[in-house]
Structure formats: structure tokens, C-alpha cells
């Protein structure tokens, strides 16, 4: 049995006229009548009582109409599902985010994406930079959001926004009385930092900025902690820290955040993906995310 004939039958019962139904279907009236007769022959039952005007459905016709509507609706849903899967609106996506980006605008954007694309199952995890880059390279992660521009033949990236660093100080520190702090003013301070292996690019960038300001920082390495832990260590008086400005949303008693005087120290938030693995779902996420950041980023994108 051809579903096309079921479609003709449903339209005919809706229009209650062979002429009107044929015009709606853009076929001739004799052709429509012939298709309905073939449907009746396939089923071995009369569907329409043609002895009255307008025609009436037989009991078999009434039952077939109910089943036909449901079947055609189901087929439309299946066709939409296949189309959504083909273009990427249905699927699973693994997203890795470095801890510092969990305190900015990106989590809310992920939430908006989930609402707009409910057919995409997002699996989001927190990863450090090095691990995340390795997972992307080995196709164990689909998309990464991080402060880095990883190098690798398979990895592609796009800059999202520039995030200036701030100085994190104990609130009773003399420098906390200033509106902004010059990097050179930190030369006698204990600078709390993560080990280099966690995020080599960020580590090297901070060291280079300090050297450019005329000093080599006194470093205290903080292992196995998060950025919020580092803010807590500052509150405890163990030193000062340089962190992306998004972390200034973390409010902790005994801590002050101050902008760095020019020249600023900055970090670039990027979205990274493995371009050797084709996945339309990944393409939808990357394109949507870049567009959304352009619309909302408080700091202009670098060109």
C-alpha cells in the first residue's frame, strides 16, 4: 500500500468533495477517484458510500481515517528526525571547559544553547587546559572552551573575546587602596601560580609580562587547586595573584580585585575543535557560540 494513497484519502475526507480535493492535491478528479478505488481494492473494503451526496465514510473508512492520520503524523515526525540528525540538530556533544571560564558568561550561553537545541545532548565537563587539548586531539572531546590557542594539525580554533587580567590582593594590602596596580609594583610580592603543566600558555604569558615590567616574580606554586581556591589563599595572606577578570565575580571577604595598569595583561578565550572529525552537530554549536559571543562580548574581539 502506498502512503500517497492514504494522503489522498485524508485530504478527500477533509474536503468532502472529489473536485475540491483534486484541486488541493493538484491532480485531476478522475485520477483522484482512481487512486481511492485502488486503495479500496488493496484493503478489500469499501471506504466511501458514493450513493449519497456528499459522500459518506463507511465504517471501514472511518477506522482507516483515524489510523491514516496517526500514521502520516508519525511518518512526518520520522522524516523530521532524520532531517534533524542529518543536519546536526539531533546528536550528542562533549564540551570541555577550563575552570576559569565557568565564572563568566559562557555557562549561561551553554544553557541558552541547550534550550534552543533540545535534541542535542550536551555532556559538559571541567578540564584543565593541557588535558583538554589532549582530549580534543584524540577526539575524546568534541569542543573545548579555554584560554589558549592550541597548536596541532587537527585542531582548529576561533577567538571569542579578550579577557584582561586583574590583580587579586588581600583587602588590607596597601596596593588595594589604588584604583589600578602597575605590574612592577608586585616585584616584592609572593605571586601565587599554578604549575606550568596545567596551562603552559597562561603561565608563560604571566612570567613574560612580569619580566617586561622589569622583574622576575617570586613564585609560590599552588597544585591541585581551582582558581577559587587561589582566591582563598590570597584572603589567607599567602600572596597575591593574577587572574582573568571573569573571576572577579567571585566575592570573598578579605579580597580585593584591581585592574592592571597599562600595559594590560590579557588572555584570549577561544573555542577549539578537532577539524579532522566531521560532525554537523559540532558545527552547529561552534557557529552558534561564535555568533552569540559576538553579540554579547563586553570586550571587543581581536581582529
From TrEMBL:
Sorted UniProt keywords: DNA-binding, Transcription, Transcription regulation
GO terms of molecular function: DNA binding; DNA-binding transcription factor activity
Gene3D superfamilies attached to this UniProt entry: Periplasmic binding protein-like II, Winged helix-like DNA-binding domain superfamily/Winged helix DNA-binding domain
HTH lysR-type domain span: 1-58
Pfam families listed in its UniProt record: HTH_1, LysR_substrate
Transmembrane segments: none
The organism's place on the tree of life at top rank: Bacteria
GO CC term (a single one): protein-DNA complex
Family to which this protein belongs: Belongs to the LysR transcriptional regulatory family.
UniProt-recorded name of the protein: LysR family transcriptional regulator
Biological source species: Labedella phragmitis
Organism placement in taxonomy: Bacteria, Bacillati, Actinomycetota, Actinomycetes, Micrococcales
Amino acid at each position: 500500500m502506498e502512503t500517497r494513497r492514504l494522503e489522498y484519502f485524508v485530504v478527500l475526507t477533509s474536503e468532502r468533495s472529489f473536485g475540491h480535493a483534486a484541486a488541493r492535491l493538484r491532480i485531476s478528479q478522475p485520477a483522484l477517484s482512481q487512486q481511492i478505488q485502488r486503495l479500496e481494492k488493496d484493503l478489500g473494503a469499501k471506504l466511501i458510500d458514493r450513493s449519497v451526496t456528499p459522500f459518506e465514510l463507511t465504517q471501514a473508512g472511518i477506522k482507516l481515517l483515524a489510523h491514516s492520520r496517526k500514521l502520516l503524523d508519525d511518518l512526518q515526525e520520522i522524516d523530521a528526525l532524520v532531517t534533524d540528525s542529518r543536519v546536526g540538530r539531533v546528536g550528542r556533544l562533549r564540551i570541555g571547559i577550563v575552570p576559569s571560564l565557568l565564572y563568566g558568561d559562557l555557562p549561561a550561553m551553554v544553557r541558552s544553547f541547550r534550550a534552543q537545541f533540545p535534541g542535542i545532548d550536551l555532556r559538559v565537563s571541567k578540564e584543565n587546559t593541557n588535558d583538554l587539548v589532549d582530549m580534543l586531539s584524540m577526539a575524546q572531546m568534541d569542543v573545548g572552551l579555554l584560554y589558549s590557542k592550541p597548536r596541532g594539525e587537527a585542531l582548529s580554533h576561533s577567538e571569542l573575546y579578550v579577557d584582561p587580567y586583574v590583580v587579586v590582593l588581600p583587602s588590607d594590602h596597601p596596593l588595594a587602596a589604588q584604583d589600578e596596580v602597575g605590574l612592577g609594583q608586585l616585584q616584592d610580592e609572593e605571586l601565587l601560580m599554578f604549575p606550568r603543566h596545567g596551562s603552559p600558555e597562561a603561565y608563560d604569558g604571566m612570567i613574560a609580562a612580569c619580566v617586561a615590567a622589569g622583574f622576575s616574580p617570586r613564585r609560590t606554586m599552588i597544585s591541585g587547586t581551582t582558581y577559587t581556591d587561589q582566591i582563598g589563599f590570597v584572603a589567607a595572606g599567602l600572596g597575591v595573584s593574577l587572574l582573568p577578570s571573569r573571576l572577579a565575580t567571585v566575592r570573598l571577604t578579605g579580597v580585593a580585585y584591581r585592574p592592571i595598569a597599562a600595559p594590560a595583561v590579557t588572555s584570549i578565550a577561544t573555542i577549539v575543535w578537532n577539524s579532522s572529525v566531521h560532525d554537523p552537530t559540532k558545527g552547529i554549536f561552534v557557529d552558534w557560540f561564535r555568533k552569540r559571543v559576538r553579540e554579547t562580548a563586553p570586550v571587543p574581539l581581536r581582529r
